[in-house]
Amino acid sequence: MSQEPEAQSTFHGDRLRGILIVDLGTQYAQLIARRVREAGAWSEIHPAQRALEAAQSMDLAGIILSGGPASVYEQGAPQVPDELFGLGVPVLGICYGMQWMCRALGGEVEGGHTREFGHTSMHIDQTTGLFAEVPADTVVWMSHGDKVTHLPAGFETLASSTDCQFAAVGDAARHLYGVQFHPEVSHSKHGSKIVRNFVIEVCGLAGDWVPASIAEHQIERLREQIGSTGEVILGLSGGVDSSVAAALVHRAIGKRLHCIFVDNGLLRHGEREAIEKMFGEHLGMDLTVVDARERFLAQLAGVLDPEVKRKRIGHEFVEVFREEAKRFQNANFLGQGTLYPDVIESVAVHGGNTAMIKSHHNVGGLPKDLEMELVEPLRELFKDEVRAIGRYLGLHEQLIARQPFPGPGLAVRIVGEVSPERLAMLRQADHIATTEIERAGANVDLWQYFAVLLPLQSVGVMGDARTYEYTCALRLVESSDGMTADWAYLERELLRRISSRIVAEVRGFNRVVLDISSKPPATIEWE
Ligand code: XMP
Hints:
Layout: E1 17-23, H1 29-38, E2 42-47, H2 48-57, E3 59-65, E4 91-94, H3 96-104, E5 108-110, E6 116-124, E7 137-144, E8 147-150, E9 156-160, E10 168-171, E11 176-179, H4 191-202, H5 211-226, E12 232-235, H6 240-253, E13 257-263, H7 271-282, E14 286-291, H8 293-300, H9 306-325, E15 333-335, H10 340-346, H11 361-364, E16 373-375, H12 383-392, H13 397-400, H14 420-439, E17 448-462, E18 465-478, E19 486-487, H15 492-505, E20 509-514
Helix pairs in contact: 1-4, 5-6, 5-12, 6-12, 8-9, 14-15
The structure holds xanthosine-5'-monophosphate.
């Protein structure tokens, strides 16, 4: 009798065991990663030109080739290295990825004759393996012009639709599978299940990339990295990332963690007091509050360029941490709450395809001669995973649910020069907006909601007199990880209340506007 092979843990050796997602130009790479993570597996996304190198350096359990807008015959179309099909790990090709795989292995692809787009009924021949527990008749999302017309040797049809004979194909012996539809999008009714089946049934992963095991694994890794005498300086911002990072490091090394909260003058209303209470009093961590307002503002005087602002703030943070580190004998480590999206957006980790958008201060702005080793327990995680870990570690829900706040603080929410007067205006307007939104309970569906100061003067009339004052923009967005975002709308009365209060109570604003830009093409913060 054949025995089921034992499921492989993500936390298997020195490296995490997981799935390589090859980005072939799709809009959906992050969505594929999300589905894989929902299945309890870890993944990395790389472009075609980096795929082989990534596959060789990862502890690889399987590969997903994404879709893409190109045709496999097109000049300049992303080229999947042939070697990926011979590594002995399962491969799932989606749309373009399937077409590339079939052609590379001896099948045929025909271009241009089909236009299958949108919801499509699909019949599955065998509801096992990739399609285990998926109904034989289901609905999937198709979006393709080319299609596979002849299968490579060893492949068989697994599912078909009216217009697509090979809606899903596979070679079970070699663990190679292709789907013409997009299982990652929510319109494919059982798409998540199909991705899950690939990860668990086909790749044999245990699905143990879940908050409890991620947290315990990271705590173990932290203990190894920091050793039995090392001390960590960690900049606490009050946001969820640095808080969860602190909680993890605290669990790993206790009092050898020294949290530094820098009051850089760029904080929101009441922030400093809230942090002191939460971390010092409630969580019993070693917390030092450094008043650095003057030195940060001095660095920002006269600076208009957003990138210069970010770099200077990042630099000043590091200087403060370095000075603080001198107070401790073995503080050779700098802890940070860097997340995976920070890493992707700050450095072209994808090897060139991803443009540098903003230098997130905790990734892009570190000096080469830091002389402190970085401790970044959240570097592989998305925000919702971080929140889940925070809950597992027992952090207060109020803290976990807090909206993200960028390291450079209000400085990137003031377009142009930062001055004490502008900061005071923005802080007050932001407090009005957030308080009203929270009081109305409208924050639950929002990822972030805040005010921005635009030094754009316009004419107004107040008490019969002419005004010529600044503009306050409201930024309200929905998002699940900050990588993409949609603008949000609030009930008219609530918007009216926020707007009237800001103009009436904050001197210097005579106009409030609503930012209705999604990301992309805009970003969430204005700078
Ligand atoms: P953007 O503006 O790039 O923001 O669309 C995406 C998410 O990241 C936050 N953000 C930052 N977080 N340091 C941080 O810790 C930074 O320098 C930084 N810049 C942006 C932003 O608030 C949003 O949630």
